[in-house]
Design a protein that fits this description.
Chains A, B: It comes from Kitasatospora arboriphila. Two copies of one chain form a homodimer. Chain A has one domain: Alpha/Beta hydrolase fold, catalytic domain (Rossmann fold), CATH 3.40.50.1820. Chain A has seven helices and nine strands, in the order ββββαβααβαβαβαβα. The longest helix of chain A has 27 residues. In chain A, strands 1-2-3-5-4-6-7-8-9 form a nine-stranded mixed beta sheet, sandwiched between helices. In chain A, α2 crosses α3, α3 packs across α4 and α5 runs parallel beside α6.
């Protein structure tokens, strides 16, 4: 892990850009973090739109989490942002756009081609980032995953024992195979769903919530459209982290 | 409204039993309530099991709300507790027990006979209680409804303009006619659903949530069975009241 920039924000949060091999990422640490009092870590997931595009929303959430004493880190997804194009996934995205523009149903084949390679490639990268992040002074366990590409969150929850809780955003396309993986998830889950998100298959989101094997799981459905998560819903998610990471 | 007992609890809360005509009820007021700083009021609904049976749960919730500065009141439902038996509703309950014991589906006729007369009779009683409560020193608006018999909460939200927010528990039987009334509800709603409650028609609860006309509505689904609402879910509901009543 190689830090490429360091910025001290006015709320005492330190924002550092890094590269991990060829993967760019950002780490936010709270003013309170120290070697003697390491901050719990939130891995901040996001849709494959590129870190630059997502930066304002990610930074806002990271600074909110820093105020609660958490460090937050994110990495660029394969094939997104400044990382090399990934022809297979780009073809799947083009197929998705085509059928959606035509008003046709999105087939399982398209969803699988879009999501499964991304999960297979991104999850080991998140794990490598986790190795590097936990080796830094001032950052310690426990660790949570938060955010989008819910299939990445599911796979991480199943394969990565250092992740002890997750906030997941229902709404992206979910391959059928991930429903089986969801049954293997046992960590506490806080699942957010935008009820009136027309681009979202609500029934699939409810079926997925039902599939999770976790003894503690909560579904929080709100109004406001795809990107209109209400402020109070973010506060409730923050309390979930405080309950499970402190 | 005639007070029949007054008890000072160790957290400064005053618990007073009252009668309103023939209807028994309980009022909890926080230590902070005064004529110059009247407490917002929560009307605390409950299933028709009788106030004595429900008392421990109701008192716990009222004391929690008092700590946030809210007054809480509840009244006995018609046909419950110490109130005169109500043969028509008792017949409907007997019918319900019979078909459930036989593993038969609960017909719309049984649900209508069970719930609609209760709503028709209880809602004006809640409104009469509201008149009397708001005339007391130390209690002022805004007013919220919280609790069970969701159909009573729906009707109150539609017909009673003094109610400005509601926490509703999905799970009781809901007559089809109430889905139409739900579309007329416009106040902020916080709907709680026990996801793994086997006695609950989950799909009906989701359909009802979808039907509500409110611009702000949130669904909070948790695990723990019918009566196992997690502590943190109660805290989130309390924040909803704080957001809307203060």
């Amino acid at each position: 892990m190689h830090f490429t920039s360091e910025q001290h924000l006015d709320d005492g949060v330190v924002e550092r850009e890094f590269t991990l091999g060829e993967i760019p990422g950002i780490l936010w640490t709270p003013a309170s973090a120290s070697t003697s009092a390491p901050a719990p870590l939130i891995l901040l997931g996001h849709p494959p739109l590129g870190l630059r595009t997502m930066y304002p929303r990610l930074a806002a959430r990271a600074r909110h989490s820093a105020a609660e004493g958490f460090a937050t880190a994110t990495i660029e997804l394969p094939g997104s942002g400044d990382r090399p194009r990934w022809p297979a996934v780009e073809r799947a995205r083009a197929d998705l756009r085509r059928v959606m523009a035509a008003g046709e149903p999105v087939s399982d084949e398209i969803v699988d081609a879009l999501i499964l390679p991304l999960v297979d490639k991104a999850v080991p990268e998140w794990q490598a980032a986790l190795d590097a992040l936990l080796a830094l002074p001032g950052i310690g366990g426990p660790v949570a995953y938060s955010g989008g590409v819910i299939s990445i969150g599911i796979r991480l929850a199943v394969v990565e024992p250092r992740i002890s809780a997750a906030v997941l955003f229902a709404g992206s396309f979910v391959p059928r195979a991930m429903f089986e993986e969801a049954r293997q998830v046992t960590i506490p889950l806080h699942v957010m769903l935008q009820w009136d998100d027309e681009g979202n298959d609500r029934q699939a989101a409810l079926d997925l919530f039902d599939a999770f094997g976790s003894e503690e799981k909560s579904l929080h459905a709100n109004m406001g459209g795809h990107t209109g998560v209400p402020q109070f819903a973010g506060d409730v998610a923050a309390q979930f982290f405080t309950r499970h990471l402190k």
